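thought: fold this chain, then report.
action: predict
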Amino acid sequence: MSSTLFLKNARIIDPAQGLDEVTDLAVKDGRIVGVGNLTEKLDSQENVQNVDGYILTPGLIDCHVHCYQYSTPLGINPDSHCLARGVTAVVDAGSAGISVLPYISCILPHISCRQCRHPPNLM
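observation:
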């Protein structure tokens, strides 16, 4: 039996719903089951978290990143840099191309093929 998670006093911003207000949110089995003043629905056994000062919003999209990690000085790991900041989708804005060949040449000897367990032979 799963319990409902109540998030109290969250600033909820959802442009698709036209919502930008401080209110409550209820989650059960990984799904949002209520938004609004949920004080009357709270049970002493329920999991209640006061998130006053926090923003709840659908995942953000960053439309310009350079996430070809290790191939350019600008390359980042999108999992560690984006997810922690609420960004759930990214668009790489041109990290791959002929300009990264010197960087790839430097790291290839240190990368192993995950399936065959030997360095890739690209030439």
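thought: worth noting. Residues 20 and 27 are 18 Å apart (CA to CA).
final: tokens above.
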